[in-house]
Amino acid sequence: MSSVNDFDTAPDEYVDAKESSHNDKRHQKAELSEDQLNSKAPNENHSLFKGYSFFINTKPDAYGKKSDINSLTRLALSHEGTILDELPDSTSMTGEQRSKFYVVSPYNSTNLNTVTATYIKACCQNNTLLEAHDYLVPYDDFKKGEQNTNANEAEAKNDKNDKTDSIDSELVGNIQLQSMTAENTTPLQLNNSKEKNKKNRRSQKNKSPTVSYNKASFTEEEDEFILDVVKKNPTRRTTHTLFDEISNYLPNHTGNSVRHRYRVYLSKRLEFVYQVDSNGRLVRDENGDLIKTKVLPPSLKKKFTAQEDYTLAIAIKKQFYKDLYQVDPDSGSSLIMADDSPVMVAKRKVTMAPNHVPGTEPSFDSFKVLDRTGPLAREFFKSFSEKNTSHTENAWRDRFRKFILPYGIDAYIEYYDSEKAKGKEPEPMRNFTNRAVRVGPPTPGNYNSVNKRAKLNINEVRNAAAAAAAAASAHVGYTIPENELLDETTMKFISTIKNDIESQQNQQNFEYPQDIAEAIRQDFANEENQYDNLEIDVMEFPPAIASVDLFLPEFFRMGSVKVFVDKIQEIISRDYEPSQAEKLVQDLCDEVGVRKTFSTSVLTALSGDLMIFPRYFLHMFKENANPPTNVPGIWTPEDDIMLKNNKPQEIDILIQKHGKGRIEMRKRFVERDLI
């Protein structure tokens, strides 16, 4: 879904950049390989584009490589689409024909429905016909003139006060040159020796005598490019797809890293945007110049409200009720008719509760969805989006899949009704796509009781002997004998800790008040962009700080920081009971290779807050420090000393770092001698 021409940039320069081998593995995954094109997935919808026709722009400034055009052609044809050799006459096309015809091009100079190549690829990858709205390329009637004057514009662009609306082609060349210099080769060499370059890329970088290009850094030219694209696409500034498109032309960055760069740093520099119409098309004045404005238009991506979440949850509950009992939840009348078609009868048998006797069904209010997740027909979301037009069909479906299901339909309805009954305003669901899933009210971490923390520690020391068996990294092939890690002093220490914690288990449980939990949850939400959305793809693996006394060989086999963190997220989002602390620590040991003693110390530094468990490792790897410093929620020994001293000036420093909620939580840990 990307092309430089979508952004009014210099196409020739960016075709070269895109064709070079500087796109690393992060971008290669966005391309469909030959094997993927030719293979047949078991459930693949081979009639995906049946009835649809496409004209693929084959001009050099559209898709420079013939292989790209061939790949798109094969994709469309293999899914029963039709490829046209020439543009049809739009005046002779019926309305239906126009709705099922697309030009595939990075720019729109035809005033016909035009989509980027990503649309075809995305449909095939998702095995469904997606809405084309997010992939449409606005019509630009100045396109032809701009193409003829690109060369002149590139030379004049060096002046910072230049008010033209095209990206400097020389700027693009600088980005490309830096990438190539870092690789210590030339585009010609890259094309002629791709395999050799893959094998020797790391050594080639080390041999470069003058340039050491840091993939994690953004140059000023790249920042200006990102800002220029956002200025010309203001309605898409909150979408992921826009930044994915930008990343195609910044080979050293992913879509997520570009989005993070804009949201955290560059958005503050957005002094104006270019005016667009209701369809997101750029508006020009009588001289053909783009119009600057400081008024941001509504974004395509709208936030969901609590009312919308509740409406969706109720609608899904009603649909499940209808399916299970064949009774209208509003009127209570039966949906079973004597003249039902065979298709309806067959469908009823699939969804209806087995052995259900009509008339014995519960009332709708007392009916519980429980863990039911479907099936929900595509027609449900289509019909729902027609009645609730604030979001698209796909957006409603994603809301159900990523938010409603993890939170729980029954749980949210109960929460919403309860808040309304108290005269409070409910909050919408949030952050279930990238945080650990919690059961019950939205409180931070698993703040249940001191016993849970105690059990975590005692079960850790009980299993210290098992954790002692260690091996070096997978890159080195030696093991550490068990008897070298446990001596008499260590065993005495274990016994002492064991006895102390067992005595603490008899103490009265304490719960965290709602105001503390709410304060911590709010702090986490405010911190997320800065401390949790790091450029994980460019982190070195294994990290320099990773040693065999902290990690087992399983960790070194993970391959990348992203794989490790994703697995951590999956583990901590499981539904562990307070009595299963040993299982949590054991799972971290077995599945990601974090030693039990280390994971216990991490949990202690976090005051048991699993929600920021991944944050600890991200900053540990980034800062090469254990524990990482100056990170909210991660308590260092110095922080604990300041807390115990209780000096007003030092407490103010801790409040600024951790927030009042976490300080109150830490005090309880200190009072119970859990630190």
Automatic annotation (TrEMBL):
<keyword id="KW-0158">Chromosome</keyword>
<dbReference type="GO" id="GO:0070187">
    <property type="term" value="C:shelterin complex"/>
</dbReference>
<dbReference type="Pfam" id="PF16589">
    <property type="entry name" value="BRCT_2"/>
</dbReference>
<comment type="similarity">
    <text>Belongs to the RAP1 family.</text>
</comment>
<feature type="region of interest" description="Disordered">
    <location>
        <begin position="178"/>
        <end position="214"/>
    </location>
</feature>
<dbReference type="GO" id="GO:0003691">
    <property type="term" value="F:double-stranded telomeric DNA binding"/>
</dbReference>
<dbReference type="GO" id="GO:0000228">
    <property type="term" value="C:nuclear chromosome"/>
</dbReference>
<dbReference type="InterPro" id="IPR009057">
    <property type="entry name" value="Homeodomain-like_sf"/>
</dbReference>
<dbReference type="InterPro" id="IPR015280">
    <property type="entry name" value="Rap1_DNA-bd"/>
</dbReference>
<dbReference type="InterPro" id="IPR001005">
    <property type="entry name" value="SANT/Myb"/>
</dbReference>
<dbReference type="GO" id="GO:0045944">
    <property type="term" value="P:positive regulation of transcription by RNA polymerase II"/>
</dbReference>
<dbReference type="GO" id="GO:0005829">
    <property type="term" value="C:cytosol"/>
</dbReference>
<dbReference type="GO" id="GO:0071169">
    <property type="term" value="P:establishment of protein localization to chromatin"/>
</dbReference>
<comment type="function">
    <text>Involved in the regulation of telomere length, clustering and has a specific role in telomere position effect (TPE).</text>
</comment>
<feature type="region of interest" description="Disordered">
    <location>
        <begin position="1"/>
        <end position="42"/>
    </location>
</feature>
<dbReference type="GO" id="GO:0008301">
    <property type="term" value="F:DNA binding, bending"/>
</dbReference>
<dbReference type="GO" id="GO:0061849">
    <property type="term" value="F:telomeric G-quadruplex DNA binding"/>
</dbReference>
<dbReference type="InterPro" id="IPR038104">
    <property type="entry name" value="Rap1_C_sf"/>
</dbReference>
<dbReference type="GO" id="GO:0006110">
    <property type="term" value="P:regulation of glycolytic process"/>
</dbReference>
<dbReference type="GO" id="GO:0061629">
    <property type="term" value="F:RNA polymerase II-specific DNA-binding transcription factor binding"/>
</dbReference>
<keyword id="KW-0539">Nucleus</keyword>
<dbReference type="Pfam" id="PF00249">
    <property type="entry name" value="Myb_DNA-binding"/>
</dbReference>
<dbReference type="GO" id="GO:0005667">
    <property type="term" value="C:transcription regulator complex"/>
</dbReference>
<keyword id="KW-0804">Transcription</keyword>
<dbReference type="GO" id="GO:0001094">
    <property type="term" value="F:TFIID-class transcription factor complex binding"/>
</dbReference>
<dbReference type="InterPro" id="IPR001357">
    <property type="entry name" value="BRCT_dom"/>
</dbReference>
<dbReference type="GO" id="GO:0071919">
    <property type="term" value="P:G-quadruplex DNA formation"/>
</dbReference>
<feature type="compositionally biased region" description="Basic residues">
    <location>
        <begin position="196"/>
        <end position="205"/>
    </location>
</feature>
<dbReference type="GO" id="GO:0000987">
    <property type="term" value="F:cis-regulatory region sequence-specific DNA binding"/>
</dbReference>
<dbReference type="InterPro" id="IPR021661">
    <property type="entry name" value="Rap1_C"/>
</dbReference>
<feature type="domain" description="BRCT">
    <location>
        <begin position="44"/>
        <end position="137"/>
    </location>
</feature>
<keyword id="KW-0779">Telomere</keyword>
<dbReference type="InterPro" id="IPR039595">
    <property type="entry name" value="TE2IP/Rap1"/>
</dbReference>
<keyword id="KW-0010">Activator</keyword>
<dbReference type="InterPro" id="IPR036420">
    <property type="entry name" value="BRCT_dom_sf"/>
</dbReference>
<dbReference type="GO" id="GO:0031509">
    <property type="term" value="P:subtelomeric heterochromatin formation"/>
</dbReference>
<dbReference type="GO" id="GO:0030466">
    <property type="term" value="P:silent mating-type cassette heterochromatin formation"/>
</dbReference>
<dbReference type="GO" id="GO:0000122">
    <property type="term" value="P:negative regulation of transcription by RNA polymerase II"/>
</dbReference>
<feature type="domain" description="Myb-like">
    <location>
        <begin position="210"/>
        <end position="266"/>
    </location>
</feature>
<comment type="subunit">
    <text>Homodimer.</text>
</comment>
<dbReference type="GO" id="GO:0000981">
    <property type="term" value="F:DNA-binding transcription factor activity, RNA polymerase II-specific"/>
</dbReference>
<dbReference type="Pfam" id="PF11626">
    <property type="entry name" value="Rap1_C"/>
</dbReference>
